[in-house]
Design goal:
Helix content is about 55%, strand content about 5%. It contains 15 helices and 7 strands. Strands 3-4-7 form a 3-stranded antiparallel sheet, with no helix packed on it. Strands 1-2 form a two-stranded antiparallel ribbon. It folds into 3 domains: about 90 residues, Orthogonal Bundle (DNA polymerase, domain 1), CATH 1.10.150; about 170 residues, Intergrase catalytic core (hpI Integrase, Chain A, Orthogonal Bundle), CATH 1.10.443.10; about 40 residues, no CATH class. The protein is mostly helical. The termini are far apart.
Length: about 375
């Protein structure tokens, strides 16, 4: 017997001491080179392992619901009954190919592949399998939807039409387009989170809708933050919040409850887009991109935008809104031109010094 990397005792019986010693040497050598496999993996099916893996995840409820949906609909029907030790790279490639042939979207396939790869990687680290058969298996490239931005004038027009549809919706549209808060963060906002005198908004709560049920939690990536809003928005919110108590929701449905995205989109958003003469394919989430665009055009730094939007890193901000900074580079070049042109077109320091010395010499000679 020996104690494995999992902290458990593992034992086998042999008819001779020599065979027992050979087996023990083999197991200990596998541990040393990192190739040890838990003996129980031979009987553990992927479906059972998936349940165990899910229990150990620390993710947001919405993320967990998405994982469970993909496991149930895409992974377990094919691999659930297969033993962990029997899953091969060829099997995973066939599984991906079948989803492509079925016509499943590239993004959905990539998500399913990512979940399978993550779960198998934990199995590898835990010593249940020697390698990760999903590692290196390619999925179709998904074409990322480019963020779409509204101008300030378009936001004003859209907010006006939204207010016509539902009272308070105009302020809500302005708020999303200026602050860049996510839907769940904005609809969870309470009056006590607003300090309109100092123009501060405290973002520390979010609401997620899962299968029609509202789940309360922290913002994405658990990142609470404080943002500073322009005075024009603070003044608009002051009027909107005039009759609200500290614990009241800032933005509500007509009956005073939480705004629901599907209802808002159907009853307010799409009709307002149509009335404002804007593309009806615009998403509510595009107001977040609009906020980023307005911040960039106002001269905000990457770090400031990252903090305002609640991104985990500045890299995420750049990756998401890289297209915004092309015009920013043009503006930067113009500012550099204005700064450099007086120096570039005037005499250099050496030339100035030489001219000065010559004049002094001439004066002395005279």
């Amino acid at each position: 017997m020996y104690r494995g990397p999992d902290g458990r005792q593992h034992a086998r019986s042999f008819d001779t001491k020599e065979r027992a010693a050979r087996w023990l040497r083999s197991e200990l050598a596998a541990i040393d080179r990192g190739g040890w496999i838990d003996p129980r993996a031979g009987d553990l099916r992927f479906g059972d392992w998936a349940v165990e893996w899910m229990r150990g995840l620390d993710v947001k409820p919405k993320t967990q619901a998405g994982y469970e949906s993909l496991l149930r609909s895409r992974i377990l029907p094919t691999l659930g009954a297969v033993k962990l030790s029997s899953i091969t790279s060829a099997m995973v490639r066939r599984w991906v190919t079948d989803m492509v042939a079925e016509g499943l979207s590239a993004s959905r396939i990539r998500q399913a592949r990512a979940i399978l790869r993550q779960s198998l990687e934990v199995a590898r680290v835990d010593g249940l399998i020697g390698g990760n058969p999903a590692q290196g298996v390619k999925a179709p490239v998904s074409r990322r939807r480019e963020p779409r931005y509204l101008t300030a004038e378009q936001v004003a027009r859209l907010a006006g039409r939204a207010e016509d549809r539902q009272r308070g919706s105009g302020a809500f549209v302005w708020f999303l387009a200026v602050t860049g808060l996510r839907w769940g963060e904005a609809v969870a906002l309470r009056r006590s989170a607003l300090d309109l005198m100092r123009r501060r908004v405290e973002v520390h709560e979010a609401v997620t809708e899962i299968s029609g049920r509202l789940v309360h939690g922290t913002p994405k990536s658990h990142l609470s933050r404080t943002i500073v809003i322009p005075k024009v928005l603070a003044d608009r919110l002051a009027s909107h919040c005039a009759r609200l108590a500290a614990d009241d929701l800032v933005f509500t449905s007509p009956r005073g409850g939480y705004l629901r995205s599907a209802n808002f989109r159907r009853n307010v958003w799409v009709p307002a887009l149509r009335a404002a003469g804007l593309d009806e394919k615009l998403r509510i989430h595009d107001l977040r991109a609009t906020a980023a665009s307005l911040m960039v055009s106002s001269g905000a730094s990457i770090k400031a935008i990252q903090r305002a939007l609640g991104h985990a890193s500045a890299k995420m901000t750049l990756d998401t809104y890289a297209g915004l900074f092309t015009d920013d580079l043009e503006a930067l070049a113009e500012r550099m031109h204005e700064r450099l042109v007086p120096v570039a077109n005037g005499p250099t320091a050496l030339e100035t010094e030489t001219v000065g010395i010559t004049r002094l010499h001439d004066a002395a000679a005279g």
